[in-house]
Design a protein that fits this description.
The protein is mostly helical. It has helices at residues 22-38, 45-72, 79-85, 87-108, 111-115, 121-154, 158-191, 197-210, 212-219, 224-229, 235-247, 262-288. The model has no long low-confidence stretch (mean pLDDT 87).
Length: 289
């Protein structure tokens, strides 16, 4: 019989005796990591190209607005117009970032590792959603704040001018938050259905673009009520109608012909937001099961 040669080596493993930071810390860490990932921070150059290209576009528009006002003394576009005018860059940003936040974890099958910790299934979904909302708000709000600072320096009426300018800024920031909450929920829900980022991005763009012709079709059917409610068919036009109902029509802008159906767009926005978030939470209950 061969002699026993097995040896147990003591390599110094010890039990962890430090503080147990728990579920709240796990949520905060996942949120912070996701916000950084949305902008490619901490990742390679390839992950930074598309997000920062979109950031460059929105900042360039802001610089043009600031320069036009400083030279001519007139406003090129309002803060709400700035938010609405960047709908397509925001759509591309969502199509890039939402799959980056959730599709990679589905593809690499890392969700069981997340859920083996104090992190609940709903915690994961809500942390990712909060991170995407934060990214969209930062994308649109930071340039608006730069425009505001530039506008304040061009005014000659001191504090009262700055306060009046803030009154113009507030609806723009409100519209930004509304767009971030609703569009992020829709995009993240779509992205959570596929582990392939390219497919998820195509689906997100498809939902925003394919529903756009439906608005035109409903407008040309000849029914007045249907035409006024047609903007519910597309998330982008729904946002415009919702903002118009909440903040009113600006200046000489005629706005969308929604008539007295503003409350219907408020209900539509709440249904889209609540439904998307609810389905997102349900999706991750099924994924983790």
């Amino acid at each position: 019989m061969a002699p026993q040669t097995s040896v147990i080596h003591d390599i110094g493993y010890q039990r962890y005796t430090g503080p147990r930071l728990g579920r709240w810390y796990a949520n905060r860490s996942l949120y912070e990591h996701s916000v950084r990932a949305a902008f490619g921070i901490g990742r390679g150059a390839k992950a930074k190209i598309f997000p920062w290209l979109i950031i460059g576009i929105v900042l360039l528009v802001a610089v043009v607005v600031i320069a036009f006002r400083s030279i001519s003394g007139q406003t090129l576009m309002s803060y709400r117009d700035y938010t609405a005018g960047l709908s397509y860059p925001v759509m591309l940003f969502l199509a890039i970032v939402a799959p980056e936040l959730v599709s990679r974890d589905l593809r690499d099958r890392t969700l069981p590792l997340y859920f083996s910790r104090p992190l609940a299934r709903t915690d994961y979904a809500l942390a990712k959603y909060a991170a995407l909302v934060t990214a969209v708000v930062a994308l649109l709000a930071v340039p608006q704040l730069l425009i505001y600072i530039g506008a304040v320096f061009t005014r000659t009426d001191g504090f009262s001018g700055a306060w009046h300018e803030f009154g113009d800024l507030a609806p723009g920031l409100g519209a930004t938050l509304i767009r971030a909450l609703i569009l992020a929920s829709v995009s993240l829900l779509i992205a959570s259905l596929s582990g392939r980022r390219a497919f998820a991005a195509a689906f997100i763009v498809g939902v925003f673009l394919i529903t756009s012709p439906i608005v035109g079709i409903l407008n040309f059917l000849g029914n007045d009520t249907l035409a006024k409610l047609s903007f519910l068919a597309n998330p982008m036009t729904l946002m415009l109608a919702l903002e118009q109902w909440i903040f009113g029509i600006e200046g000489q802008n005629e706005g969308l012909p929604i008539g007295g159906y503003g409350p219907a767009y408020g209900v539509g926005g709440l249904i889209l937001l609540g439904g998307s978030v609810g389905l997102l939470l349900l999706r991750y209950r099924k994924v983790a099961a």
